[in-house]
Amino acid sequence: MTTDSHDMFGPLPTVRTVPVLVPMPAATPYSYAVPAGMAVEPGSIVQVPLGPRKVVGVVWDGAEGNAVDAKKLRPIEKVFDCPPLSAEMRGFIEWVSAYTLSPPGLVARMALRAPAAFDPEPMVEGLRFTGSEPERMTPARRKVLELAGDGMSWTRIGLAHAAGVSSSVVDGLTAQGAFEPIFLAPPPLVAKPDPDFVPPSLEGPQNDAARAILADIRAGGFSVALIDGVTGSGKTEVYFEAIAETLRQGRQVLILLPEISLTADFLERFQDRFGAKPGEWHSDLATRTREKVWRQAATGDIRVVAGARSALFLPFENLGLIIVDEEHDPAYKQEDRVYYNARDMAVVRARIAGFPIVLVSATPSVESQVNCQAGRYKKVHLATRFAGAAMPDLHLIDMRRHTPERGGFLSPVLLRAVGKTVERGEQALLFLNRRGYAPLTLCRVCGHRFQCPQCSSWLVEHRFRNQIQCHQCGYAEPTPNACPECGTLDHLVACGPGVERIAEEVEKHFPDARTLVLSSDMGGVKRLRLELDAIARGEADIVIGTQLVAKGHNFPLMTLVGIVDADIGLANGDPRAAERTFQLLSQVTGRAGRTGRKSHGLLQTFQPQHPVMLALVSGDADAFYEREITERERAALPPFGRLVSVIVSADTRAEAETHARQMRHAAPTLDGIAILGPAEAPLALIRGRHRFRLLVHGRRNSDMQAFLKDMLQAGPKQRRSIHVQVDVDPQSFL
Ligand code: ADP
Ligand code: ZN
Description:
This protein is 30% helix and 23% strand.
């Protein structure tokens, strides 16, 4: 006979369970038990056991349960003393997860990137004057008491420093009862910005632009505006007004910038306008500082954050506006773990939470232009530079006719222009988007090319370091003297230019000029910031730089920009090649003449009839966009069609290819969706992994996510050795 415990003892005690999203590539949250007396709600940030580890998770939405057999479920260990992730933030995480086809736990992890910030910052120990004087007064003691007599609280060290005495003097006074210990709240990282600290005087077109944007901010609710204004038109001043208005409404602001760690002058400009710096968020911050920014954004102590794309996942207490500066910039696309475009996801966050977003660019993305044409975004146009400064005069140099001298890359026309600029005491920038000395080294005797042992890319010579390096994986070896293939000594030859090689050529022609090479491999962020400042102060005559110099810096003396190879980006099979080249070259030439001096841009090209070159020199951006939009529409390319790329990588070429083929065969057929490939990726090998690509193309209204889910489900069993990466709206086709 069986005994029914219910009958004998009444109902068994049950345990409350909640879903918890953990930082794992799982499709759904896991259930955990809530210990008696513990208070949790959806959004609570908690510590839970996961296998042998303890991880940080978030109590998620979804059915709570009651478990009878509590032994099977592990309990939540701890609830952090931290504002819970809001319903909006949870909705945003779900949305990004569904759109990018990434596990929700991995998206949530991006919102929790501040390990020690979940508990409150510890209080700081301080001292307060009690009013009682010590029995014996000394000059040192007098100094301390004079300072502390103001009734303010001090830290022990701070007080000693301020009084110019050793801390034992302070200790002596404390022992005598002159001070009592107190606890102070940790100081905020940045002061509160004041929307009316230094109100600007906007000029005509800026006023109209600001009015149009402010109308959206005052109306509240979701809206998207695009500020499309030429370089130097004062777009920043205009969106500062939107920020001021949002601050007056008591809400927080997020400013996304593509290269925040290098834009120190942006922070200063912000401070001049608002009387305090914004909180900064990027990967070069010290861990402690990052944690403080995270915490203070969550508590509302920080009102404005300026950050790189990952700042989009900060859990703001009351976010009311996002600005996406340089919205066209490819740096907004993350291609690591969760593949997402921060510009697009910022629009999603604003829509979910119901607040305005402002996109800003001198060369907007085709996507945003089309959204304006369709009336989904409001377009605000600034056609001229601030204070009547002229745009640089742009000319093409036809390299078929103006041949550089043997072994050189700079045409006589460009060299002459550089010479004249330097003579006038002004600055010239030579732009080449290639780091190092030469992109390829080969042996003149046997033709051997130096290739990375683990990637399908050439090793790039870096002369300053005396190394050849792989720009894919970082592999490096000392620059060899002899060919490893045929053994011949001293017959290796550098093919093509990098910035270091251009610097060599410049130094040969202008031995007395102060030449500076600026490229991301030439030192850490601190050094680069210092060099950018030095250029702005006029401490270099000729700057040779990669795209690092294209972004947002003001160089008052710069009046000539020379593009060493304007064709560089046009050759690859990227559907955005024309757009990218147009944007990059407009931005780089836009560095010239921003403070009103007459300025020039010279573009070396072998294709002077190319539509991109013609659009650049005519200054007719509208014609360029019209043409590009028509072509995209005809080919059903984004934003008129949708693309998802799937990269299959494996240890062997055969494995990768077989898996990719099987995926394709198993894929469902659906009207309006086509699969291209698999084909070996242009970068067929990265870090020893062989890569094959499938490109899924769909109509504008196709449900790509549903199709891909089905395709992945129907495909071959996932094996350990094989990795499948889905990239929705790909930017890179390598
Ligand atoms: P953009 O962001 O469009 O490239 P900026 O906002 O950087 O342009 O403005 C270009 C320059 O003009 C900056 O040096 C800025 O300080 C100055 N400027 C723009 N608008 C004003 C204004 N209303 N009053 C004073 N200076 C301004
Ligand atoms: Zn490599």
